[in-house]
Amino acid sequence: MQPPTISVIVPVRNEDPGTISKLTDLVNLEGIAEVVVVNCSDQHSTTDRLKELQSKFNSFKVINSEIAGRAHQMNQGEAIASGSILWFIHADTSVPESSAKFILESISTERPWGRFDIRFDNPSVRMKLVAFAVNLRSGLTGVCSGDQAIFLLRSQFHKMGGFPNIPLLEDIALTKNLRRETQAIRIRTPVTTSARRWENHGYLRTIFLMWFIRFLFWVGVSPRKLARLYR
C-alpha cells in the first residue's frame, strides 16, 4: 500500500508577482506530491509568471479556468490532482514548513478533514484579536473558512460532492457538511494569511460585513446576492 501524499490546490486570480513566487515554497514541503494552481487571471503578468514557474518545477502544475470563482477553480484542480489528500490553500496564505507533516500525522478515515488556526501578516494588536476571534469561532462551531487551509481525504471530498458551485461561502457550505459527520482536526500551528482586505476596507466595516453575510447565508439568502454585497 502506497503512503498517503498531498495535492495542494490553489485558486489564483490576478495576484501580484511576489504572491505568485511564494507558491513555489509549497513544492518543497515534505509529503507534497504536487501543487496544482488553477488560474483565472486576465493579467498577463500573473499568467506569465505561472508559466515560468511551471517550467522550473515538475510538480508545479498550472491549469487555466475560463470560469471565475474559487469553488469552480478548486473543483477543477481536484479533477487533475493525484494525491490521496487534498489541501486547499489561498494564494495569499503562507504555511509553516512542518504543516504537511502535521496533516499526514493527524488525518485518518476516522478524522478525514481539518484546518489550521490562522494569524495575519499584519502584527498589530487588532489583527491579533481578529485572528483570535476567527480561531475561537471555528473551534466552537466546527465551521471554517478557506483562509484556514482546509485539508481532507480525497475520498471524503468525493463523498461530500466537492465544493458546492456557488459564488461565495463555498468553504462554509462544505465544512458545514463535513461537520455533520465528524469534528475537524484542529492544527494550532498557524498559517499566515493576508490582512489586505481588512486594511483596505477598514477593520470594523469588514468584521460587520463578514458577520452580516454569514447571517444572511444562514437565513437562506442566495449566495449570488451575497457575492454582490461582498464585492
What tags apply to this protein structure?
eight-stranded mixed sheet; Spore Coat Polysaccharide Biosynthesis Protein SpsA, Chain A; 47% helix; single chain; alpha/beta; globular; 231 residues
Biggest beta-sheet profile: 8 strands, mixed
Measured distance between first and last alpha carbons: 47 Å
Anisotropy-based shape = globular
| Strand percentage | 15-25%
Order of helices and strands, N to C?
EHHEHEHEEHEHEHHEHHH
Q: Which fold name is given in CATH as the topology? A: Spore Coat Polysaccharide Biosynthesis Protein SpsA, Chain A
Using the CA coordinates, give the radius of gyration. 17 Å
Number of extended strands: 8
Do you know the CATH architecture? Alpha-Beta Complex
Number of folding domains? 1
Counting DSSP H or I runs of 4 or more residues, the number of helices is 11
User: Average pLDDT value?
Assistant: 90
- Helix share, percent: 40-55%
In CATH, what is the homologous superfamily?
Answer: Spore Coat Polysaccharide Biosynthesis Protein SpsA, Chain A
CATH C-level class is: Alpha Beta
Structural class: alpha/beta
Structural description of this entry:
- The protein is an alpha/beta fold.
- The protein has a single domain (6-118, 142-194), classed as Alpha-Beta Complex (Spore Coat Polysaccharide Biosynthesis Protein SpsA, Chain A).
- The protein has helices at 17-22, 24-27, 44-56, 70-80, 99-106, 125-141, 154-160, 170-181, 196-201, 203-218, 223-230; strands at residues 6-12, 32-39, 60-64, 85-88, 93-94, 113-120, 151-153, 185-193.
- An eight-stranded mixed β-sheet has the order 3-2-1-4-7-6-8-5.
- The radius of gyration is 17 Å and the shape is globular.
